[in-house]
Structure formats: C-alpha cells, structure tokens
C-alpha cells in the first residue's frame, strides 16, 4: 500500500534537549496515509528520542506534532487514543503477565468489545504462534516471539500509525525477515507505519520513503529505493564502501 | 500438655488475627512499592487518619459503625491521593531517584502525626465500646476467641479478596499489574499514568484505614499509632517487596511469630523475634519469599 497523498502525521521542527545536550534540533517529518516511512541513523542520532517525542514521553523544547492536522497535547494516553501506538525499543513485553493479558492491555483505550475480538483474530492471523502461547507468561517467550507479541500488543490499540523503535534489535536475521514480512502485511491492511532502525538495509527495503538522521538533524530524505543506491548512504549506513 | 496445646491454638488464632491486620497495611505498602519503587513511610500516617476519622465520625457526629468506617476509608484514601499529588508528584517529575520520595514520605509521616498532636492532642483514645462486638467465645479447653478478632480476620480477608478480584478481573486492575512490571510501557498502552498512580494510592490508603480501625480496636488510638507500620513493612520485606501474596504471607508469619513468642516465651521478646526474623530472611533470601529475582529477557 503506497501513500494516498493525505498527510496523517506531521512533525515540525522538533527540538528535544537532555539537560544541555540537544538530542533533536529541528527535525521535521511527514507520514502520508498508508505509507511506510523509515528513520535511519547511527546509535545516538536521536531516533528513539524522536519516537518518544511523538508519543509524548519526552518534553519538546520546540516544534509541533500534528495528527490529522490537529496538534497532539504531549500526553501519552491521548496520543494512543488519537491513533499512535509504539512498539518500544527492546520490546518491553510485560513479562509477569500472560500473552493474553499483554494483548488485553494493548486494547486498554478501547471500549468496543466486539471489535476487540475481531482484532484478536487479526493479530493471530498475523502471528499464529501467539495463539498457541496465549496462557504462557510473556517472559518465557523467545526474543522473536516477544517482538511479535510487542507488535501484536500495539496493534490491539487499532492504531492509525504503528510506530516501531528498532524492531530488528537483538534478533536473528531469519527472525528479522519474518517480522519485516509481517510489517508489510500489516501495512497492506491499511496501517501506516513509521519505524526507526539502525538496520538501514532492512528499513530501506521495507519503507517507501526514509529520513536519515545524524546527531539530531536531518541529513537526507527521499525515496527509499533511491537512498539504497545513494553512494554516501551505502558507504555510511549499509557497510558497502563506494 | 493440655495447657500447652490450648495455648498453642489460642496463640495461633491471635496470631492470624494480628497478621491479617498487618496484611491490610503491608499490602498497601507493597502496592505503592510495586508501582513507584520506594517504601512509602507516610503509610502509617494514612492509617492514623483512618483511625481518627472513624473515631470522630462515631463520637462527634454520632454516625453508626458502617457509615463511620466508610467515611474513615474515604478520608484515608483521599489523604493518600493528596500526599501523592502534593509531596511525591513534584519529585517524580523532576528526578527518577526514588530515595527522594522515601525521604519525603518520612517527612509526610511526621507532618501527619504532629497535625494530630497539635489539633486533637496526644492522649490515648479508645473507640466507643458499643462500636464493635465485644463478646468472647469459648472454644473448649480454655481456648477463647474474641468477636473483634474474628471480625478483623473476616474483614481483612474480605478486603484482600476484593483487592485480588479488582487486580485480576478489571481493566484498571490489569493496568496496575502491567504498571507494576513497567510503568513507562504501561503508559505507552494508553493508560493515564497520573490517574493510575492516584488510584493505587487511594486503594493503599483505604486498606490502611481498615488496618488503622482494627488496630485502634485491638490496642488504642493515638497519633503515633502509625509507627506500627514498621511491622507491616517488615512483613512486606519478608514476603518480598512489591509482591502482594508475599505481603500477606509475610504478615501472617509475623503475626504468628509475635503471638507464639508472647504465648510461649515472653511478651517482651516479641520485637526481638520479629527483627531477628527480618535479619535472618535478609541473609538467606534478600528478595524475600516472592521478591523479584527472576531476570527478564531484554
């Protein structure tokens, strides 16, 4: 599913400071409805900070975040109600809760019981293994299964934008491939996706457009296919010297 | 022999009754700890507010026992919420170092205690005789149970079961359990964390009030009554801080240990045994019985 040309999420000149250190200095990004957008960059470029800023988890020193051209208030639960749902870095499943409880808490903001049942079926069709492990504690799942659970949990909020912070982190290449395949399927079913990744190659292969972030500033943006061929990007982020 | 056996049974009953009151207090302690990871020493203050609210509703305004207890629970719950908003929230928003919260909670405890000293005075009070059943039942072999012991055991059990149902069967209960595991991520699920923390404090304050009322019945009511939470704190540590089943188990162990010591050794040795037990547990199992030791997969 490619973009429809309608802006769903827009970040304008986002600035975030940690004490005296500027983590983001005027970063802007647009996500069209139906699009997959990737933010790539090295460790410490400000990718996670950007995700946390979108979710209202860190205070903005400047800038605006618009969802459907309405500004978000900076309260996390309102961002979730508005349709943003983040799969946090390191998965962060609730280890002492069961898989089923993890999914149920994902649907916390929703009150439509009937549709929630539909969404259980939906996430089980994406990740059948979760259905087999429904009564198991999330902490006993493998890393890949935990990532699947974290994504499924975020989908239970029925988001308009699924945000993923380093979904490939710490996973085996074969598991990463599976997960990214499911992300494409999720997008084809109408969910716009914004992901930040250090694994630039996978992120560029999956996304329609991408932004390259370097020490809190935009370095480059463009069509993902073109960025994959860009000699600078290849040298700096894809480990293929020019 | 018969004497010893009846003493044993008698002290077990007394111990369970006392332990159940500790459990009400310890569970609130543990609940707050599980979410914010600090020991809330103002918990004793909440308990005192509950005790005095019940006393004055009964004696000054002449309400019946049920209404007075309900009023006391509400007063204590609101005190807890207010304490969180005024004393802890400003700290939480500035730093993640929980030591500051712990110090603030000690300060709040002193404030509450002394507010009662300067307003109603430090003298020891007793809840009116007619408030709670005073009968004593003979179980045979010289074993007796007082009605107030049975009442405190039953009421404590009811409240603990209600808490368990709330935590396992409701939407907000699930959110609290998720927040106990990872507060930040619970926020990412769309849980209004500020409201959740307020709710946890309200529940903790409410349970403290029930404990405070029964302690006032068992002993008496005075501004320093809250210091008994030290025992509940020890019970929570023995059970594993942050674990609710642990807090209940620890409380019952503590209640039994105290009463058996009182029955078979000497009443004065109670605290010695309690603290020895704490030291022993900390040496053998530093995380307590149900403490968090299992590491999570990152």
A few lines on this structure:
The complex is a heterodimer of chains A (242) and B (298). With 242 residues, chain A is α/β, with parallel strands linked by helices.
Q: Which labels suit this protein?
A:
heterodimer, A: 242 residues, Rossmann fold, six-stranded mixed beta sheet, four-stranded antiparallel beta sheet, 10 helices, 27% strand, B: mainly alpha, two-stranded antiparallel ribbon, 11 helices, 72% helix, globular, disordered C terminus
Can you tell me about this structure?
The complex is a heterodimer of chains A (242) and B (298). Chain A has 242 residues and is α/β, with parallel strands linked by helices. Chain A has a domain at 1-82 and 208-242: P-loop containing nucleotide triphosphate hydrolases (Rossmann fold), CATH 3.40.50.300. Chain A is built from ten helices and ten strands. In chain A, helix 3 (99-106) packs parallel to helix 6 (143-155). The longest helix of chain A has 16 residues, at 173-188. The two termini of chain A are 32 Å apart. In chain A, 47% of the residues are buried. The mean pLDDT of chain A is 92. Chain B has 298 residues and is mostly helical. Chain B has a domain at 18-126 and 145-223. Helices cover 72% and strands 3% of the residues of chain B. Chain B contains eleven helices and two strands. In chain B, a hairpin with a 2-residue loop joins strand 1 and strand 2. The A-B interface holds A 55, 57, 75-77, 80-81, 85-86, 88, 90, 92, 94-97, 101, 104-106, 108-109, 139, 141, 143, 146, 153, 157, 170 and B 171, 174-175, 177-178, 181-182, 184-193, 294, 296-298.
